[in-house]
Structures are given as C-alpha cells and as structure tokens.
Amino acid sequence: MQISFPEERNPDSALRGDPKLQRLITRLSLNLERDQLVRQTTGDLQRSLNVDRVFLYYFYRQWKGQVTFEALSDPKFSIFGSTGPDACFNDEYAALYLAGRVRAIEDIETEPIVECHRDFLRDLQVRANLVVPILIPQGLWGLLVAHHCQSTRSWAEADITAMQEGARAIVPSICSTEP
C-alpha cells in the first residue's frame, strides 16, 4: 500500500497567483509606509518647532474631519480622534485652504477670529496655532497643524516653511494609498 501526500505548496507562489490578494497586500504595505512617514513627519515637526502638539487632521467627508496622527510634548495634550467644529469650518474656509492659505495665530485671545473657532481652540487648550493645508490633486485632503498650548508664540517664517515642507512630504504617500 502506498500513501500519497499532497504536493507541498510554496506560499509565495500562491500569493503571486491571486491578483486580489496581491493588491490587498500591496495596499496594506503602502498604508503602513504612509503611516510611518506621517508619524515621522509629525514627530520631527513637533520636536523641531518645540511645540506642544503637531497633528494631521484628515477630511473623511466634505469638511468633516478627525485627528488621525499626533506628536506631543506631553500625553496630556492628546486630542487623538477629535473632530473639528463642524459649524466653523465651512466652504469659505475650505476655499481659502484650497488656495494654499497658511494660518498663523500668535495668540488666540487677541486674534480677530470667529468666536466658535476661538472657543474650539480654547477647549483644546491652544494659545498659538499654525495651520497648513495638505493638498492632493483631488483637492484639500487635510490639514497639518501645530499648537502651542502653554503660551503665546510668534511663528517665524522658518516655522511656516517647515510645516509646508512637512505637508508636501506626505502628499506622495497619501496619493499612492487613495483609491
């Protein structure tokens, strides 16, 4: 009596044979690379700007967003998962950021901003705020934001340039993972 054994299969060859599985693995790999780049970028910016918080605010629907990455000087400053003030961020503000607007606020208490925005920033313990858009070919993908919470801050041109470069640095990885 002879026992037959199934042919030994090479798992790598099975992966190459299934295009759907290969696309899934590629997409997961690209997402992991993007996430690592965003973590690195927000961390580098938080340290180089010496601020309390740098985060990525991602628009998952038209002008509805959420904090998806953050780098902090102290865990007490975490706002991970927070959503923005829906009533405050509207088409008018979106159009400004679509045009490349950079918003640098030295002191939220003295800056002429709408009250709902000021209240929102107060709730986040923010004293100084720097926002740059993350623009992809399809439009405004999100915002890269630096907050200084412990005191006011005069933003230098180098701070603004660093944030803009950070936003531009993550765009290729975002574009490679967008459907």
Automatic annotation (TrEMBL):
SMART domains membership: GAF
InterPro entries the record matches: GAF (IPR003018), GAF-like_dom_sf (IPR029016), Phyto_chromo_attachment (IPR016132)
Signal peptide annotation: none
Domain Phytochrome chromophore attachment site: 33-169
Superkingdom in the source lineage: Bacteria
Name listed for the protein in its UniProt record: Phytochrome chromophore attachment site domain-containing protein
Organism from which the protein derives: Stenomitos frigidus ULC18
Organism lineage: Bacteria, Bacillati, Cyanobacteriota, Cyanophyceae, Leptolyngbyales
